[in-house]
Amino acid sequence: MQEKIYSSKELAGMFQVQSVTVRKWAQKNGVAYIGEGKRKNYLFTEPDIERFKAREKPGRRRR
After folding, report:
1. Span 1-57, pLDDT tens digits
2. What is the pLDDT of residue 42?
3. Which of 5, 43, 47, 54 is 20 to 30 Å from 63 at the Cα level?
4. pTM to 2 decimal places
């Protein structure tokens, strides 16, 4: 059975965060991707999702 692969948009929807948050995290954490430059698409596996879920989240911004 093949492992399901998720896109940045799908992951952002799952965790109710912006797609840019997911892409920045993926870039810093070595998530596999296809394409180059602006056409780069990250391919999240179940272990990637678990690591994303456990990431350190920034606190709220002060006013």
Report:
1. 778 999 999 999 999 999 999 999 999 999 999 999 888 999 999 999 999 999 988
2. 95
3. 54
4. 0.82
Give alpha helix (H) positions in 1-63: 8-15, 19-28, 46-53
Strand-pair partners of 33: 42
- Please give the backbone phi and psi of residue 28, each rounded to the nearest 5 degrees, phi first: -75, -20
Q: What is the C-alpha to C-alpha distance for residues 26 and 44, in angstroms, rounded to an integer?
A: 8
- Name residue 49's amino acid: I
10 touches 23 (CB < 8 A): no
Sequence ranges of the domains in the chain: 8-53
